[in-house]
Specification:
Length: 86
């Protein structure tokens, strides 16, 4: 899990076109975040030669935070690039 998060935060998200950080709107009232990925080929593990269909998916990260404010702080400390714009 931590290996996946590290690759997501440090490799995949910054490589996205026009990436300026994740919106705090993506964090729900319980402090969990949902991120949409347009194409699974953003991950180098997905071999493009073997793929027949390209699809998008969502990643939800469940935190132990009790509310949105705690969730934002926890995600920032984990290294998530959150933008301050709501």
């Amino acid at each position: 899990m931590f290996d996946f998060l590290e690759r997501l935060i440090n490799i995949n998200l910054p490589r996205s076109r026009d990436f300026k950080g994740l919106s705090e709107k993506s964090i729900d009232k319980n402090g969990n975040i949902t991120i949409g990925i347009r194409e699974q080929i953003a991950f180098p593990e997905a071999s493009t030669e073997k793929l027949k269909n390209i699809f998008g998916f969502e990643i939800t990260i469940k935190t132990s935070a009790g509310n949105k404010k705690e969730g934002i702080e926890l995600l920032r400390r984990l290294g998530f690039p959150l933008s301050n714009k709501e």
